[in-house]
Amino acid sequence: MSEQQGAPEQLAAGKSQGGAGATYKVVVFEFENFCGKKMELSAECKNVIEKGCEKVGSIIVESGPWVAFERQAFGGEQFVLEKGEYPRWSTWTNSQTNNYLLSLRPLKVDSADHKLHLFENPGLAGRKMEIVDDDVPSLWVHGFQDRVASIKATNGAWVGYMFPGYRGRQYIFEHGDYKHWNDWGASTPQIQSVRRVRDMQWHKRGCFIAPTPTPAPNPTPPAPAPPTAAGTS
């Protein structure tokens, strides 16, 4: 693939296969907490309503990864779903516009290796940052500003976030060239953190697990005052 397709063409391409030998299976439920109508999928679904499910309110990914969308036909905000359980919308995003999903497809991961190039300007031009086999919770820490106007995904699949710490809207990057931020469905050239998408074919743990924040230590209570000595006569 010499050039990345535009967003509508790419999403409609129906990428239902990952690397050689990859398998995909997801179980979707109509309501939160794995309740309501249940449906199993092993290939893309452009509209869950057409399959008799009003919406998707919770998900179990048995093998993947997958990318889900808030609208039909792979439209609207997108969300990466790696192996695991997602009982409600807050488990797949912290940037809520809807509390349900309407379409989803397998996410293509072309190799176990990961390499990504970020560019400051459109057309793969300007200041450049290379990321190899690593997750970057803050581009600022690495001396790169939040303006990312084009991207080249050389190996693996990646997800970028608008804000540091893997927060905000998600943008998916499969193998190819993204010469303008519109190509990944963004309205502004802002990305502040990126991470690798894990594929069960190569990564047996299955999914990325965000580190749990270290709780603040409880203040040490003051030592009790020593008893007052009794007076002597």
TrEMBL record:
Beta/gamma crystallin 'Greek key' domain location: 64-108, 156-198
The keyword Metal-binding is annotated on this UniProt entry: no
GO biological process: lens development in camera-type eye; visual perception
InterPro entries: Beta/Gamma-Crystallin (IPR050252), Beta/gamma_crystallin (IPR001064), G_crystallin-like (IPR011024)
Annotated stretches, region: Disordered: 210-233
Keywords associated with the record: Eye lens protein, Repeat
GO molecular-function terms, A-Z: structural constituent of eye lens
Comp. bias intervals (Pro residues): 212-227
Highest taxon above the source species: Eukaryota
PANTHER family: BETA-CRYSTALLIN B3 (PTHR11818:SF13), BETA/GAMMA CRYSTALLIN (PTHR11818)
Protein's job: Crystallins are the dominant structural components of the vertebrate eye lens.
Family according to the record: Belongs to the beta/gamma-crystallin family.
Quaternary organization: Homo/heterodimer, or complexes of higher-order. The structure of beta-crystallin oligomers seems to be stabilized through interactions between the N-terminal arms.
Protein name: Beta-crystallin B3
Organism, as annotated: Salvelinus namaycush
